Amino acid sequence: MLTTVPYTRDLVLVGGGHAHALVLKAWGMDPLPGVRLTVINPGPTAPYTGMLPGHVAGHYGRDDLEIDLVRLCRHAGARLIFDKAVGVDRVRREVALEGRGPVAYDVASIDVGITAQMDLPGFAEHGIGTKPLDAYAARWRVFLEQAAQGQVAPDVAVIGGGVAGCELAMAMAYALRAAGVAPRVTVIEAGPQISGVGDKARQRMLVAMDGLGIAVKTDATVVEICADQVLLDGQDPVSARLCVGAAGAFAHRWIATADLPQRDGFIEVGADLGVVGDEALFAVGDCAVMPHAPRPKAGVFAVRAAPILHHNMRAALSGGRRKTWRPQKNYLKLISLGGQTAMAEKFGFALTGPFMWRWKDRIDRAFMDRLNDLPKMALPKVTGEMASGVAEILAAKPLCGGCGAKVGQGVLSGALQTVAQPRGDVVTGVGDDAAVLRQPEGGFQVISTDHLRSFIDDPALMTRIAAVHALGDVWAMGAQPQVGLASIVVPQMSAELQARTLSEITRIATEVLRAAGAQLVGGHTTMGAELTIGFTVTGTRDAMPLTIAGAKAGDVLILTRPIGSGVILAADMAGQADGRDVAAALAIMGQVQDREAAVLAPVAHAMTDVTGFGLAGHVRAICKASGLNGDLWRDAIPTYAGARALSDAGVSSTLMPANRADAPIEGEQDALLYDPQTAGGLLAAVPEGQSAAVIGALAAKGCAGHVIGRLTEGTGHLRLKASRTCEERNMF
């Protein structure tokens, strides 16, 4: 009997803005049963605007100002789609995406901020807008490093003399000075004076900018941005190796062209934050405008609107009553002045000094703490009388997803001992990546099956990774993928959500198999407690397919992907992983490996794919089947970003202890060698003399290849060395 609450409604949050981030925090504390929550954002993080000037000045690191959407979505039980919205179909209730099919919604909210990309000649080629913030911050870090090394002149032009432009100009001037460079920063303002503040605050800002050597040009109209200067109408050009656009707020182009009620490209919303005339759509933050209560484009309003947005979306999903949001008429402005000093302005009064900076710093850090202070994953609790052994299992780590949920190699081998030996057309069976069948007309067919317990809430991305994972068995045998059958278990949900989910899964499965030269020919679906996706795949090869037997003494081992995905997924499940590391690993796991297989298969003596039994287990399988020993070099084995630090901190997958017991290693020890991999790399035993050519061929196809060890005469033993000898380094 299924005990989970079925999904009946889809809530989609477009963008990872401040309001949506706060909604995710609140949703995780009190989710609305029956709602499937989806977040769409181009990347795994979203920058907090309040700390950007401090980051530019060097007071904050990159991690300090980035909101980790991966952790927030894990906390909220939401799927996170890494993509960019490019349109909304309000009739079909779908959000169009740049890189994948549309995402359907019952209720949706848009919080994508604004852009500062200016429509000026040369700006697209030579300028950078302050919005989106992450793109500007990345460009600034590169420029600062180049200026500090004397590679570029420290000439900066900021177009726009509002609060944002002046604040960033002071931050950049301060950072350049701190790097030992005399800055030449110019603020270019089209109006007669810098704007956005009262007279007293304006004078204090001018004094602060003058102290940092910042020039201010007013009544200046920009004509063109060139590679090294900004041309002005009737005034001398301004030298600029970095041109920053901060003049006003511009709507995203896709919003301006969408079928949405809008004012000057901004979405028109009512007092309940709902899009005018649409009961299913909301908009908040800088991308929205309230004609009845105009307000500046400032993050403080999005933060104040978040509780009302949260309440009203729940009301729209459940038939409740909505609340009204009344933005404040006056708000406190805290403006950084370059160093660790700031100015506070409200009601025409202005105060400056280090105390104001400390006040601003406390407010900013408190906001980030709200989003970072997430409860730890709750462990299941069972009280009262229970069978022996239940308490011990429940006290262990929660079951991982992906290959981390597999049965250990030792247990599996014991269970398969009773399977009959191959006969007739079956050439090989249990023990290799896939069964090999002899074709009556000549040649061979390979067949394998695999499925994954979900480790992310996105059915489309899970399908992509599961398909790549299953195809790994075909590629490992040097065969050409032929067909795929899907086996899908979806959580209990309404018929409409079933249709949406299966449409996404089918679309991605077809796409991945087609990219591999195969086709989806059907499958089986059922509902269960959680999402599980698997594939039965076949492939063909004229010659006898590669197996794990056949490696020769003197062969070197080539690995095509990093290890450590199990650690990262386990940490993600517990809310301990960096969202950027999770996103980077998922991106690699979802890439097909047909090019790698095409390079390796013609030269490999043996090949497999690294999956649930970890690198050590799969190397040992080749060694035992081929009658060899294996030497691995720890410094040559690639690892996913973040995996090493997590492993050293004691994070591991639930399958890791079994893998360690099944594949003991002599010499150095490294827990990552036992880490179960999902959609892991191909592992090939290649003649030593051809290894350099193979690595070069992989690189020529845009693929990675790493020589990680060597095989010698033996009986299946593994040894790990900390590093290669000088002779081995020169050899590879």
Task: Characterise the protein shown here.
The structure is a single chain. 33% of the residues lie in helices and 24% in strands. α1 (18-29) runs parallel beside α4 (69-76) and α14 packs parallel to α15. The protein is globular. It is an alpha/beta fold and 732 residues long. It has 23 helices and 37 strands. The two termini are 57 Å apart. The protein folds into 4 domains: 9-113 and 251-321 and 343-372, 3-Layer(bba) Sandwich (FAD/NAD(P)-binding domain); 123-245, FAD/NAD(P)-binding domain (3-Layer(bba) Sandwich); 433-543, PurM-like, N-terminal domain (60s Ribosomal Protein L30, Chain: A, 2-Layer Sandwich); 547-732, PurM-like C-terminal domain (Phosphoribosyl-aminoimidazole Synthetase, Chain A, domain 2, Alpha-Beta Complex). β28, α15 (495-515) and β29 (519-528) form a beta-alpha-beta unit.
Summary, kept brief:
Helix content is 33%, strand content 24%. With 732 residues, the chain is an alpha/beta fold.
Task: Please give the share of residues in helix.
Answer: 25-40%
Global shape: globular
CATH class identity of the largest domain: Alpha Beta
The largest sheet is: 7 strands, mixed
Mean pLDDT: 89
Overall number of structural domains:
4
* Biggest β-sheet: strands ordered side by side in the sheet: 32-35-31-36-33-37-34
CATH architecture designation of the largest domain: 3-Layer(bba) Sandwich
Low-pLDDT stretches: none
What is the CATH topology of the largest domain? FAD/NAD(P)-binding domain
The count of DSSP E runs of length 2 or more, i.e. the number of strands, is: 37
Structural class: alpha/beta
- The end-to-end span amounts to 57 Å
Count up the helices. 23
Radius of gyration: 29 Å
Which percent band covers the strand fraction?
15-25%
